[in-house]
Design a protein that fits this description.
The complex is a heterodimer. Chain A has 20 helices and 29 strands. By secondary structure, chain A is an alpha+beta fold. In chain A, β13, α7 and β14 form a beta-alpha-beta unit. In chain A, α7 packs across α8 and α11 runs parallel beside α19. The longest helix of chain B has 18 residues. Classes of the chains: A alpha+beta, B alpha+beta.
C-alpha cells in the first residue's frame, strides 16, 4: 500500500471540534443509562458473598412472591449451549464460560460472581427481592494469588482444567495453571556468564481496574416476535450481539444491539455481563428491563486486569543488552485467559536482544475474570523489564536513553515470536525523548529523581465496515459501526474529508446499530482510526470512482478520461468540462440514483507503536508521598489525524499509569473479599495528584495504511509504571519491586533501610 | 411504596413541582422523574462528581442530596448552563481545547467549573486542580480540562471589561 504524501494533507493534522462535542458539553448526549423506553422496569443482580463455593440450591420462590417483582432468573433459565471459542478484540473467550460468568450454575468462583437476577417495578423493590432469594453454599477455601494457586496442594477452581502448552500439549491432572508457554532464542546462560553486569529481580503488581466512570448498564426488550433489542454501553456492539445470541441460542439477526454513548472502557467494556441477563428478564416479564451496576459491582463483578508476579534477569556487555530471562505469572481471574502472552511478546519490543528465554503462566484464581485494560499485559511486563534495565544502566553508569538508542529495535529486528518488524519508530521516539527540553533540563534538590522507560504495543487490525452516502447538497453521511470512545467519529470523518477533498464540516459521522451496518469488531487494540480509517479511505475511493463514471456519462466520454481532484471532476480530453462534488451530487437522480460507497475489510498492516516517557518525582520520606513534578510522554503515532485527541490519549494513559504505579490496587481479605470497592478507597488520580502532562508526537508513517496511521490509544500506558518506579529509585536509592508504591510501602521500606 | 411528597423548586430558572419518595436522591429524581439525564451517576456515593449540580449557589453531589431537600431551593444542572441556545464560555472552551473524550464526566466537570468561576473568576492552576479534585475523569489526565477552565476564566474576565 502506498502512503499518501504527508505534505498533501489538508484536513489530517488539524484540530476541528469533535462532531459529538456539543451534545456532550450540554448534557444531551445519551449514554447507556439514559435510555428510558415506555414500560421500563429495573433489574438487579444477586452476587456471591463467597470467593469460592459450590452452589447447592437456589430458591427464588419467596422473591417471586414479593409485590412489584416481575421476573427472576438463574443460570437454569439459559438454554444449554455448546462451548465455542471466539476472538473478542484482544482476548479469546469461551462462550460457555461467559455464560457461567454472567450467571453461575454450580459453583461461584469469586466474590461478586452473579448468581441470580430480579426485575421489578423499581430498583428498590428489586434490591429488596434479592434479599428473599435463598442460596445454599458449600464454602470452599479460596486461592487469591498466582503463587498459592500454582502450589501442588492448592484448592482447584475447575476440576476439568488442564494445562495447555504450545504445540497442543495438554496436562494430565487438575490444575489452576490454564496455560504454559515459552519463547526462546539464542543462549542466555553463555551471555550471562560473559556479561559486564547482570541484574535480577522479582516484581509483583496488584490487580487494578480500568476505572471508567460510567458503570456497566444494559437495557433489553424481548418482543413477542422474539426480536430482542439491547441498548448498551459497549466497546463492541457486534460482540454483544454475538455473545447474547450464543448464550440465548437465538438467531443473530433477531438480536439488535444499539450502542449508546460509552462512558469510558479502556478494554473493560469488551466483555458482556448484563446484556443476556437483561434480555432473559425481559422475556420473562414481557417488559423492557434496565440493569445498571453500582460502583461496588463494577469493581467486584467486572473484569479488572491481572495481578502479576514477574521475574526478570538481564545482562549487558559492552553497552549492549545481551540476554533477558523472564518468568511471567499472570492471574486470569475465575476463568482462563489472562493477557500474559502479550506481556511476553511486548516486553522486549523496544530492544534488539539475541538471547532470551521467556516463560509464561496463565493462572486461574478466585477473583473476577480479568478483562483487557489498555495494552493488556504489556504494562506489568514493561514495569519489570524496564526496571531491571534501569538498574543495569545505573550499575554501568550508562545514560538510560543513550542505552535505549544503542539497543533500539529497528526495521528487520526479530521479535521474540521470530517475526521481523516492519518500519517502526522506536529509535525516533527515543531520540525525541533524548532531545526533549525535559530531558535536557537538570533535576536538582533532595529526594528528587528522574526516571525514563520505554514501551511497545502491537496495535490491531481486524474487521471494519463503513458506508458513505452522498447527499444532493454535497454533504456526506459516514455510517460506521465502531464504538466511539475517544474521538473516532472525528478521526474517521477527517480521513473521509481528506480522501474526498471536502471540508471536515461536510461530513457527518454516525455510529449505528447492528441492524444498520455490516460487522465491525470491537473498538480495541487501538484499531479503529487505523482499520475503520482504512475502510473509510476505500469507501471514499469508491465514491470517487462512481462519480467519475457518472460525469463520463453526462459528458459522453469514456470513464477513464475523467479524474477527481480537489473535490472537482475533470475531463482529460476537454478542459472546459468541470463539475464540483456538490454539482454532481445534485444530479444523482438523473445519473443513476443515490451515490453510496462502501467498504468492508479485514485490515492487515497494523503498525506497532512505541513510547518513551520521562518523569521527575519528589519523595517525601516522612509521609511516603510521591509527587509527580514533571512528565513528558513521547510517542510515534504514525500520523496524528487529530493531534489534540492523540495528546489526550497520551495524557489520559499516563495518568492511569501513574495511578497504577502509586496508588491503585485491589485489596483483599484472606477470605477473598475486596475491601476497597469504592472510589474513595480505590484511589484513582484526581486533578490535584498530577501536573500538566507534556506530549511529543513523533510521526513515522505506517506504510500499511493510506494515511500512515498506527493507532495511539494503548502504548502510552506501557511506560509509566516503570518510569515512575525508576524515578523513585533515583530519588531514594532504593529499587521498589512491588506495585503500587503507596505511601505506606515507601515509609515502611525507607524506615527499614535506616 | 412510601407516600410521595410534593416538592417545589426552581430548576434551571423555571419553577417546577415534582413528586418523590422520601428516600429518593436528587440525582434519581432529576434523571428518572424529570428526565434530565445530563446529570450522570458514576458511583452514587459522592466520590466521582459526575452528578454535580449547583444547589443554592453551592456545588453538591446530587446523589448525596435527598430530593425532598430541594424544597424551595434553586438548582442548576448541566441543562441550565447554556443560555438562549448560546454555549457558556466553559462549554465552548471544553470543545475548543479537546477537554473531553468519552464525555461521561463532562457535565459534572462543567457544572463544578462554573461553580468555581462564579466564586473565583481568575483561579490559578493549583486552585483549579484543588477545586476539581472531587470530579474524577479517567480519560483525559486532566491536562486539557485545567487549560479549558483557565481559558474560560480569562474569556469571562475579558468579556466583563
Amino acid at each position: 500500500m502506498t502512503t499518501v504524501e504527508r505534505s498533501q494533507y489538508k484536513v489530517i493534522g488539524t484540530r476541528p471540534v469533535r462532531p459529538d462535542g456539543v451534545e456532550k458539553v450540554t448534557g444531551k448526549a445519551l449514554f447507556g443509562a439514559d435510555v428510558q423506553p415506555a414500560g421500563l422496569i429495573h433489574g438487579r443482580v444477586l452476587r456471591s458473598p463467597h470467593a469460592h463455593a459450590r452452589i447447592l440450591r437456589i430458591d427464588t420462590s419467596e422473591a417471586e412472591k414479593l409485590p412489584g417483582v416481575l421476573a427472576v432468573v438463574t443460570h437454569a433459565d439459559f438454554p444449554k449451549t455448546v462451548a465455542r471459542v471466539e476472538q473478542l478484540g484482544e482476548s479469546t473467550i469461551n462462550t460457555n464460560e461467559v455464560g457461567e460468568n454472567v450467571l453461575a450454575s454450580s459453583k461461584v468462583l469469586y466474590r461478586g460472581h452473579a448468581v441470580a437476577a430480579v426485575a421489578a417495578a423499581s430498583r428498590m423493590v428489586a434490591d429488596e427481592a434479592l434479599k428473599h432469594i435463598r442460596v445454599d453454599y458449600e464454602v470452599l477455601p479460596p486461592v487469591l494469588n498466582v503463587i498459592d494457586a500454582m502450589r501442588d496442594d492448592a484448592p482447584i477452581l475447575n476440576e476439568l482444567l488442564r494445562t495447555r502448552s504450545m504445540g497442543g500439549k495438554v496436562g494430565d491432572k487438575p490444575t489452576n495453571i490454564a496455560a504454559y508457554n515459552q519463547f526462546k532464542g539464542g543462549d542466555v546462560e553463555s551471555a550471562f556468564a560473559a556479561a559486564d553486569a547482570v541484574v535480577e529481580h522479582e516484581f509483583t503488581t496488584s490487580m487494578v481496574h480500568q476505572g471508567y466512570i460510567e458503570p456497566q448498564t444494559s437495557t433489553a426488550n424481548w418482543n413477542a416476535d422474539d426480536n430482542i433489542t439491547i441498548w448498551t454501553s459497549t466497546q463492541g456492539a457486534f460482540g454483544v450481539r454475538g455473545l447474547t445470541a450464543q448464550i440465548l441460542k437465538h438467531p443473530i439477526s433477531k438480536v439488535r444491539v444499539i450502542p449508546m454513548e460509552i462512558g469510558g472502557g479502556f478494554g473493560g467494556k469488551s466483555p458482556v455481563y448484563l446484556d443476556p441477563v437483561a434480555a432473559l428478564l425481559s422475556k420473562k416479564s414481557g417488559r423492557p428491563v434496565k440493569m445498571t451496576m453500582s460502583r461496588a459491582e463494577v469493581f467486584e463483578g467486572t473484569g479488572p486486569t491481572s495481578g502479576t508476579v514477574i521475574r526478570v534477569k538481564a545482562a549487558v556487555k559492552d553497552g549492549r543488552l545481551t540476554a533477558v530471562k523472564a518468568d511471567l505469572r499472570y492471574e486470569a481471574g475465575a476463568f482462563p485467559g489472562s493477557s500474559v502472552g502479550a506481556g511476553a511478546m511486548c516486553m522486549l519490543g523496544p530492544y534488539i536482544v539475541e538471547n532470551f528465554e521467556i516463560e509464561t503462566y496463565d493462572v486461574v484464581v478466585n477473583k473476577p475474570k480479568t478483562a483487557a485494560y489498555r495494552a493488556p499485559g504489556a504494562q506489568p511486563a514493561a514495569f519489570a523489564c524496564e526496571s531491571v534495565i534501569d538498574e543495569l544502566c545505573t550499575k554501568l553508569d550508562l545514560d538510560p536513553l543513550e542505552f535505549r538508542l544503542k539497543n533500539s529495535a529497528k526495521e528487520g529486528t526479530r521479535q521474540v515470536t521470530g517475526l521481523p518488524f516492519g518500519r517502526i519508530g522506536c529509535e525516533e521516539v527515543v531520540q525525541a525523548a533524548l532531545s526533549s527540553p525535559h530531558y535536557l533540563s537538570p533535576i536538582e534538590g533532595p529526594n528528587r529523581g528522574r526516571g525514563v522507560a520505554s514501551g511497545f504495543w502491537f496495535n490491531g487490525g481486524m474487521q471494519s465496515s463503513v458506508v458513505v452516502a452522498v447527499n444532493v447538497d454535497g454533504t456526506v453521511n459516514l455510517i460506521e459501526g465502531s464504538a466511539d470512545i475517544g474521538g473516532t467519529r472525528a478521526s474517521l470523518g477527517m480521513q473521509l474529508a481528506e480522501t474526498l477533498s471536502l471540508p471536515f464540516e461536510a461530513i457527518r459521522t454516525s455510529v449505528v446499530d447492528t441492524d444498520s451496518i455490516g460487522h465491525n469488531d470491537v473498538t480495541g487494540g487501538s484499531r479503529t482510526t487505523f482499520a475503520s480509517g482504512m475502510a473509510v479511505h476505500e469507501a471514499g475511493l469508491d465514491i470517487q470512482r462512481q462519480m467519475c463514471a457518472r460525469a463520463a456519462r453526462l459528458w459522453g466520454c469514456p470513464p477513464e478520461d475523467v479524474f477527481y481532484e480537489e473535490g472537482v471532476l475533470h475531463c482529460r480530453t476537454d478542459s472546459t468540462r468541470e463539475l464540483t462534488f456538490a454539482e454532481l451530487a445534485r444530479q444523482s437522480a438523473r445519473t443513476g440514483g443515490p451515490i453510496v460507497g462502501k467498504a468492508s475489510l479485514s485490515a492487515r498492516g497494523a503498525g506497532p507503536a512505541y513510547a518513551t516517557h520521562v518523569v521527575d518525582v519528589e519523595v517525601d520520606p516522612e509521609t511516603g508521598k510521591v509527587s509527580i513534578l514533571r512528565y513528558t510522554a513521547v510517542q510515534d503515532a504514525g500520523t496524528a489525524i487529530h493531534p489534540a485527541y492523540v495528546e489526550g490519549q497520551m495524557q489520559g494513559a499516563v495518568v492511569q499509569g501513574i495511578g497504577w504505579a502509586l496508588n491503585e490496587e485491589y485489596y483483599f481479605s484472606e477470605d477473598g473479599r475486596m475491601l476497597n470497592s469504592s472510589y474513595l478507597d480505590y484511589r484513582m488520580p484526581t486533578a490535584l495528584d498530577v501536573p500538566m502532562i507534556d506530549t511529543i508526537i513523533v510521526e513515522v508513517p505506517n506504510p500499511g495504511h493510506p494515511y500512515g496511521v498506527r493507532g495511539v490509544g494503548e502504548v502510552p500506558i506501557v511506560p509509566p509504571l516503570a518510569a515512575v518506579a525508576n524515578a523513585i529509585a533515583a530519588a531514594t536509592g532504593h529499587r521498589f519491586t512491588d506495585l503500587p508504591i503507596s505511601p505506606r510501602r515507601v515509609v515502611e521500606t525507607l524506615h527499614n533501610l535506616d | 411504596m412510601a407516600r410521595r411528597t410534593q416538592v417545589s423548586t426552581r430548576l434551571n430558572g423555571n419553577d417546577i413541582d415534582f413528586l418523590c419518595e422520601p428516600q429518593q436522591s436528587l440525582l434519581e429524581v432529576l434523571r428518572d422523574e424529570l428526565k434530565l439525564t445530563g446529570t450522570k451517576e458514576g458511583c452514587n456515593n459522592g466520590n466521582c462528581g459526575a452528578c454535580s449540580v449547583i444547589l443554592n449557589g453551592r456545588l453538591v453531589d446530587s446523589c448525596c442530596v435527598l430530593a425532598v431537600e430541594a424544597e424551595g431551593a434553586e438548582i442548576t444542572t448541566i441543562e441550565g448552563i447554556a443560555k438562549n441556545g448560546q454555549l457558556h464560555a466553559l462549554q465552548q472552551a471544553f470543545l475548543d481545547e479537546a477537554a473531553l473524550q468519552c464525555g461521561i464526566c463532562t457535565p459534572g466537570l462543567i457544572v463544578a467549573s462554573k461553580a468555581l468561576l462564579d466564586s473565583n473568576p481568575n483561579p490559578s492552576e493549583q486552585e483549579i486542580r484543588f477545586w476539581l479534585a472531587g470530579n474524577l475523569c479517567r480519560c483525559t489526565g486532566y491536562d486539557k480540562i485545567v487549560r479549558a477552565v483557565q481559558k474560560a476564566g480569562r474569556q469571562l474576565q475579558e468579556a466583563k471589561q
